[in-house]
Write a structure and sequence with these properties.
Number of domains: 1
Helix content: 40-55%
Order of helices and strands: EHEHEHEHEHH
Shape: globular
Largest sheet: 5 strands, parallel
CATH architecture: 3-Layer(aba) Sandwich
CATH class: Alpha Beta
Number of strands: 5
Structural class: alpha/beta
Radius of gyration: 15 Å
Distance between the termini: 28 Å
Strand order of the largest sheet: 2-1-3-5-4
């Protein structure tokens, strides 16, 4: 499984530590984009990760900014991305099992490193349940194509 990670300046230290942990655990993980120690804009990083995940070049993406909210808003503008802000293990699990989230957005300011790593671990390990949730994902995909989701029945 290919995982791409990125962060703005407020999440840069956390993303580096998470990347190291994922690599140690045997995940194929890559950090894209670099703030080079200075400020950088979260939409740029969200777009980079979103393009890789939305195009299928990467399976999953993880983004960290100050709150996770900006990254989520920006990443969700990329076709094929279902980005979720998660603040605990339960929201991480549900974002994968019910929403088939393919980009995890985290807060570098509000979560400690240990919790960031635990949330990512649960998120990566949780499979999508499908079933009734699959129909809802099809409706989201229809919306990306400008269609009314109410017209999707399966």
């Amino acid at each position: 499984m290919q995982i791409v990670l990125s962060a703005d300046h407020r999440g840069a230290a956390s993303i580096r530590q998470l990347h190291e942990k994922l690599r140690r655990e045997g995940h194929e993980a890559e950090v894209v984009g670099d703030c080079s120690g200075g400020p950088c804009d979260y939409p740029d990083r969200a777009y980079q990760v979103g393009q890789l995940v939305g195009s299928g070049k990467a399976d999953l993406g993880i983004l960290i900014c100050g709150t996770g909210i900006g990254m989520s808003i920006a990443a969700n503008k990329v076709r094929g991305v279902r980005a979720a802000v998660c603040h605990d293990e339960l929201t991480a699990q549900l974002s994968r099992s019910h929403n088939d989230a393919n980009v995890l957005c985290l807060s570098g300011d509000l979560l400690g490193q240990r919790l960031i790593e635990k949330i990512a671990e649960v998120w990566i390990a949780t499979p999508f349940e499908g079933g009734r949730h699959g129909r809802r994902i099809h409706k989201i995909q229809a919306m990306e194509q400008g269609k009314d989701p109410a017209t999707i029945t399966e």
